[in-house]
Specification:
Helices cover about 75% and strands about 0% of the residues. It is mainly alpha-helical. It folds into two domains: about 1-185, no CATH class; about 190-230. The radius of gyration is 20 Å and the shape is globular. Belongs to the PER33/POM33 family. InterPro entries: PER33/POM33_regulator, TMEM33/Pom33.
Length: about 230
């Protein structure tokens, strides 16, 4: 009754569980490397479907207008719909599957707990303990996801020069990264950029750091700061 009363949430729960399943079989290629590549695409397509359903839930009345597009781009679900489309037809990159896997796992865990609560307050205690441990590490997981989002930017450039990526991919991914940086719901991308900058600045101010390395890092920090979007 609980699942039928919340059909859209249940549909997203199923697609997220399927995303976790496909992502796990890509990361751990138990069925062979050839099959792993197909699970990579399935995971991203399932994530795209989940993101589309979530975006429909957030913005139920579609309008073909600039105002609606601007509002949609503020939603995290729109960001990860774009993310899935960027990588679904590209060369499989393990780093790109982790944000999809971990976000799906976190959201599926949250809804699984609701399903267990609807069934009985004491049902499946072992599973409840696993969900509680996952929830306790949520902040660390979100930071890890943000770290993946950031370091995928140079990875797309490397893929371009190695012949495994397209010319447009780094530019489209840069747009995705600016959306994540400006996210209203998830500040972890901005937080990680700040923390990485502080760590680099601390390292290059040490006397043992060569001058050319210091200048190179300062130039890089200045360049990335100019590319960063303004956040309201």
């Amino acid at each position: 009754q609980f699942l039928m009363a919340n059909k859209l949430d249940t549909a997203m729960w199923i697609t997220r569980l399927f995303t976790v399943y496909c992502s796990a079989l890509f990361v751990l290629p138990l069925l062979g490397l050839h099959e792993a590549a197909s699970f990579y695409q399935r995971a991203l397509l399932a994530n795209a479907l989940t993101s589309a359903l979530r975006l429909h839930q957030r913005l139920p009345h579609f309008q073909l207008s600039r105002a609606f597009l601007a509002q949609a781009l503020l939603e995290d679900s729109c960001h990860y719909l774009l993310y899935s489309l960027i990588f679904v037809n590209s060369y499989p990159v393990t780093m790109s599957i982790f944000p999809v896997l971990l976000f799906s796992l976190l959201h599926a865990a949250t809804y699984t707990k609701k399903v267990l609560d609807a069934r009985s307050s004491n049902s499946l205690p072992f599973l409840r303990n696993l969900l509680e441990k996952l929830n306790a590490n949520q902040q660390n997981i979100l930071k890890f996801i943000a770290c993946n989002e950031i370091f995928l930017m140079p990875a797309t450039v490397f893929m371009l020069f190695s012949g495994q990526g397209s010319l447009l991919q780094p530019f489209i991914y840069y747009r995705f990264l600016t959306l994540r940086y400006s996210s209203r719901r998830n500040p972890y991308c901005r937080t990680l950029f700040t923390e990485l900058r502080i760590v680099v600045e601390q390292l290059i101010t040490k006397p043992s750091c060569p001058v050319f390395v210091r200048r190179l890092c300062l130039s890089g920090i200045s360049f990335i700061s100019r590319l960063a979007p303004t956040v309201a």
